[in-house]
Amino acid sequence: MITRLWQRTPKATPPAHAEYLAxxxxxxxxxxxxxxxxxxxxxxxxxxxxxWAISALWRxxxxxxxxxxxxxxxxxxxxxxxxxGMLASYSSRTGTETMIGLLVCAFSxxxxxxxxxxxxxxxxxxxxxxxxxxxxxxxxxxxxVFSLVSMLLLVTCWRSLYLTRLQAPTLRLKRGGxxxxxxxxxxxxxxxxxxxLGPLWAIPNQxxxxxxxxxxxxxxxxxxxxxxxxxxxxxxxxxxxxxPPNQLYWRGLVLDSFDGRAWKMRxxxxxxxxxxxxxxxxxxxxxxxxxxxxxxxxxxxxxPLSVTNATNSIRITADSLLMNYIPLSQRMRYEVKSAxxxxxxxxxxxxxxxxxxxxxxxxxxxxQARALIESWRAQQLNDQQIIANTLALFNREFTYTLQPPALxxxxxxxxxxxxxxxxxxxxxxxxGFLLRAAGIPVRLVVGYQGGRWNPLENYLLVRQSDAHAxxxxxxxxxxxxxxxxxxxxxxxxxxxxxxEALGESDRELVDSAWQNSSLLLQLQAxxxxxxxxxQRWVLNYDxxxxxxxxxxxLGGTESWRLTLWLIGFGLAxxxxxxxxxxxxxxxxxxxxxxxxxxxxEQKLAPFGxxxxxxxxxxxFIQRILASAPQHRNALHNIHxxxxxxxxxNQAAQIEQLERAIKQFPK
Length: 666
Fold this sequence. Notes:
The radius of gyration is 38 Å and the shape is elongated. A six-stranded antiparallel beta sheet has the order 8-11-6-2-16-15, covered by helices on one side. Strands 7-3-14-17-18 form a five-stranded antiparallel beta sheet, with helices on one face. Helix content is about 50%, strand content about 15%. It is α+β, with helices and mostly antiparallel strands. The termini are far apart.
């Protein structure tokens, strides 16, 4: 016993050498990685292109037999580049984007070490995670289709690792596609019934900060935005007729501070709303799907009364604005109830501190505009008359254009008395300055106006080109009243849209092939409707939508009910799959020459000659000839023809075989 304990344990048998990849399997891995990694590289730092390019080039040269495997020096250099790049790009922040950067580094460098099937499997497993990470940057229908293509390549590569003979690329893709199709029903069932957890994380959209407007508006800012045809948001009215165009003012920001040239938002966070006794009228319910714009503000009609979304992250401010708790980095859907009209049973009063804030102007700015107001006040004009005089001045002498001249430090004076050409922010800014100079409280409102109705899915599409600025004026006894000075200059802008209010030279700037072709307009409307349906029914499929769908389909959302339905669907699916296999089996088992031999067996069976299981045709014929030698010539001829067809690839003999069996016995 003691001797046995101290005996040296024999070494284990060394494992067999790993099976190396064939060249065709390695080629599929190269194609797969190129397709999967491409969309990520457009959203990650540029140095990752270098890492992937070096890895792909080196592996390609190894594939061609030009270069050998990289040594420790090359691997160490690439690793050092990755570490330096990660520190330079993400040293000040950590998060999902950093993890994806590390994943792409591993995905690129692992390609240099792929020699055996085990290495290829590991690369494919990373590829599945890469495919999922693509959807963190974009959730459009195009991104979903690209993810399905990526899954097809991954499954095809995975299956190709175990092929023992060459297959055409189209056949490999066909077999991989069949596996994906078999998995689609399970995927759809899981999408419908799996608990909806909501977005766990989001990748900030770097492009979002470049779209839309900011909390500072100077002359010319919205004019540049008018050339942008990208969607801003889409609106669906809940079982209601949309308001007329002159009521489609989508409030985004209230700018209450003027520095002589630009209007700014004094309180970027916004105060909580005050309680008031106003009577809300013309209530309208609607839902908005807003595109990411990198800012916390959202949009609503007039005075929002309530707002809900999946995460309850939106609040209403004292200025009747909607603010999200974090900047918008992904599309969001929210539902709003707004009042288009408010009546006050008691005359509302503006506190002195607020009146001073909304009439404040920088000292010494725009002296000509101040002199104009003083001349009107010298004529004993009241507030309403000054407002009417200003609108009449705009209507009489000014032009609405996308190409106004540049303005200097006294921008209001230069606009009112020299250029007299401008866009909506020029009119709103100068109107606000004149009223403040007259002591009338006023503030600038920035948002969007109008939109294009899409009858295919019954929603309103509001584009970036619909960006607009107007004013809200405090009228004693009535509160804040909306006044749009642009409507005095170009009423078609409000009723028919921006392009209808522009001159020929300006219209050339905004018109495109979409506006000049009815066919292209219809195609664009259909494509936008498809994006809207995708966002509403797929990306916004939250817990509330899931409960509603399951209640309609199953009669409830209880666990026992859901379990029974899943078991029933599973059994039905298994039965259908088995039925398909049974129906396909006979047609897949027999070739033409085998069907002919089956007919021979059917002719011999009545005479007591039944072919045994696993018995060859030659042995079967020899057994028959032992008791029926008179059929020697005929059966020998049939056997020779079968051998020529089945084993010597003489397919031309098939008709002669069928004829010989048809004539047997003579």
